[in-house]
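Quiz preparation item.
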């Protein structure tokens, strides 16, 4: 499959250029929009100031609620699914500009960061309309410094590449709220439970049980982002947890917050 390159000039939105290899684009996307697989010559920091999106790369799926942002290296194919209306703020960086920065090697792989209050305000300040080159340069460098301190893989679902393991993962992702026994999945994909368990560990660096929990919590986050009135009790039941405390504990293990904290109801 040929992946299309999307030049910055083709992106619709409010565009700001610093004139020094950094570009900024503000976009608004409605729930349900999908930006099909593409790549850019520039690296980018993608942040939804409001709303939730999912970024998919060959490595896996990165769930990006409003308190996360995702770093996408140059020439990395990726797609974006909008799970709830988003106000997207994206910073693009020419490779020559990045190469001049300290710790530039840290930008070679994709990752999600937890957005601190400082990083949030820094990104918003870059889009506030003030035409001050010196201020913009300071803010951009501050944003990159904050990235080093905030890497967080809690909302990442690694995707295996081995065919049997990938088929099993796709079955779970097709119904993350279901009760998936590894023995049943193994038979479905033509292998043994022992082999499938080993494959999940080697391909995703997570046990099968932990990987399934990550998938269930991602489904919970998606539902919380899309349904404002969903109850935690109903959500716990839908996801197969025996009780709300059990669900809240699992949710906190993955995200660092309880479901109600995540949804902004506390």
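Solution:
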């Amino acid at each position: 499959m040929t992946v299309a390159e999307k030049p910055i000039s083709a992106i619709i939105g409010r565009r700001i250029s610093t004139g020094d290899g950094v570009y900024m684009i503000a976009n608004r996307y409605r729930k349900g929009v999908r930006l099909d697989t593409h790549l850019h010559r520039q690296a980018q920091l993608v942040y939804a100031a409001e709303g939730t999106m999912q970024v998919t790369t060959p490595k896996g799926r990165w769930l990006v609620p409003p308190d996360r942002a995702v770093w996408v290296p140059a020439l990395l194919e990726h797609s974006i699914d909008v799970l709830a209306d988003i106000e997207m703020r994206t910073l693009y960086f020419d490779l020559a500009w990045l190469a001049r920065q300290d710790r530039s090697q840290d930008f070679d792989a994709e990752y999600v960061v937890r957005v601190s209050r400082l990083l949030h305000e820094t990104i918003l300040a870059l889009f506030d309309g003030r035409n001050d080159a010196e201020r913009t340069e300071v803010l951009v460098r501050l944003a990159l410094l904050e990235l080093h301190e905030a890497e967080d893989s809690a909302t990442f679902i690694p995707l295996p590449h081995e065919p049997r393991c990938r088929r099993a993962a796709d079955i779970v992702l097709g119904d993350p709220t279901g009760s998936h026994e590894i023995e049943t999945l193994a038979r479905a994909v033509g292998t043994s439970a022992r082999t499938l368990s080993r494959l999940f560990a080697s391909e995703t660096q997570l046990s099968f049980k932990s990987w399934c929990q990550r998938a269930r919590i991602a489904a919970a986050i998606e539902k919380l982002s899309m349904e404002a009135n969903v109850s935690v009790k109903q959500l716990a039941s839908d996801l197969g947890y025996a009780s709300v405390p059990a669900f809240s504990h699992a949710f906190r293990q993955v995200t660092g917050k309880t479901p109600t904290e995540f949804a902004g109801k506390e």
